[in-house]
Amino acid sequence: MNSIIDFFVALGKYDFLQSALITAVMVGIMSGIIGSFIILRGMSLMGDAISHAVLPGVAVAYMLGINILIGASVFGILAALLIGFVASKSKIKTDTSIGVVFSAFYALGFILISMAESSSNLHHILFGNILAVSDADIMTTTVVLGIVILFVVIFYKELLVTSFDETYAKTYGLNVQIIHYALMLVLTLVTVSALQTVGIILVVAMLITPAATAFLWTDKLSTMLFLAAGFGIVSSITGLYFSYTFNWASGPAIVIVAAAMFAISFIGAPKQNFFKLKRSVTQ
Amino acid sequence: MLTIKNLTVAYDDTPVFSDVAVNFNAGKITGIIGPNGAGKSTLIKAMMNLIKRESGEIAYNGQSIKSVQKKIAYVEQRKELDLTFPIDVFDLVLTGTYGKLGLFKSPSKREKLASKEALEQVSLSSFSKRQIGNLSGGQLQRVFVARAIVQQAEIIVLDEPFVGIDLQSETAIMKILKQWRDENKTIIVIHHDLNKVSNYFDDLVILNHGIVDYGPTQQVYNPQNMEKAFSADLSAVLFSKQEGVQA
């Protein structure tokens, strides 16, 4: 209990901790929202792929001294296009195409980063370094959060219908490809923001785990988006507390909390009906 | 009238059919029958621009199909959908209004009222808040028909709507199809239960990797055509007025 009080006292005292908390909360919201669409479209693997594929973009941005969002967006979209291209122009299935493309991008990213910077920087990119968030980072994250919310509010019905029933959306003439690539672009922006809090390796966990937890609790998409954002916030704050108190790396701490919430929901959520399902299997 | 000319579709260079020409009339319920793999779904998907065609012209009252895309409603096979999706019956029907709304507009009172009325027409008002996975096959099919109602389409295409559904739902859907016919719409139904062909369809397209025959059901539903599309045995059974068979 004392450690919780200590955490809040420190929060009042240290700017770096306030910055960390603000960033973590914003990342929790945006990754919960975008992650919901990712899991409903059956694109968890794609989310993982895009989050890794931005690595060379991060390196190039660093080398050229440009905004990291621009470098990451270019490579994220490039990877999404390439994955689609390989899958549609050959008999290779999409998941295989994803595996080939993202591992190549990831490898390229490693090489570029080792050329550009010291290994300590790489460590931060891979595992997150939330306690070193700058004011400029907070600004960027705020802009991304704004973009995510605008995107989902403006294109809510298009995102809903293409996630649920793409064939139907095509029959009335909706350009489902543009929606897909727009979502991929927003996903790369979210990835770059989440990079600061949980690192590239665990971005996929922030996208998928809070959204999957929310899915277990509701049958309504709008509710799911709010719940996923909520679970994202709770895991970010609680994770940050563990990180500060026990000196754990922030990324793993946040992700473990998210996973714990999923585990509790898996057993307890009424929709999941864990105990009833088990009974019907044993009958 | 919906006209198809010179339609050729191929999967991986193997043609499913080539040079198909067929017409669908307004104010008629047209059935498409043929053995499994004959290209029934492929024909309608190519018609609606859902899959690539090697060649072919598709026109509706002289206009290209692309320019009238919003006038088509498609009731696809239920197995192609994710039934765990967090959406309830009412919101699913409401997606039927999206095409006419276009980008940047949200469904308003008018759209919601139309969806409510469509659910009444298929007698599912009391299910409107139910998640779609918690419906029977027949109820779900009626929900999709309700979505087609709110689309206010001129051409309605249904892929195997009667598979695995209860008789009550089948009758309810047939009633809606007849209403659409009376409103002079073009209704196209892929079907596989040969017993009900004469009862259900005004016109018939018989398919087996190409058109075997098409025209008014009374004329084209005959032993010769059934033998060509299916087999002599099946044809003999169908036309000996015995208990029916399913192809």
From TrEMBL, chain B:
Coiled coil ranges: none
Pfam families referenced in this protein's UniProt entry, alphabetically: ABC_tran
Residue ranges annotated for the ABC transporter domain, each copy included: 2-234
PROSITE patterns per the UniProt record, alphabetical: ABC_TRANSPORTER_1, ABC_TRANSPORTER_2
Domain of life (superkingdom): Bacteria
GO molecular function, one term: ATP binding
Keyword Nucleotide-binding assigned: yes
Entry-linked InterPro entries: AAA+_ATPase (IPR003593), ABC_transporter-like_ATP-bd (IPR003439), ABC_transporter-like_CS (IPR017871), Metal_Ion_Import_ABC (IPR050153), P-loop_NTPase (IPR027417)
Keyword Transport carried by entry: yes
Keywords carried by this UniProt record: ATP-binding, Nucleotide-binding, Transport
SMART domains: AAA (SM00382)
Similarity-based family: Belongs to the ABC transporter superfamily.
Protein name: Manganese ABC transporter, ATP-binding subunit
Organism: Companilactobacillus mindensis DSM 14500
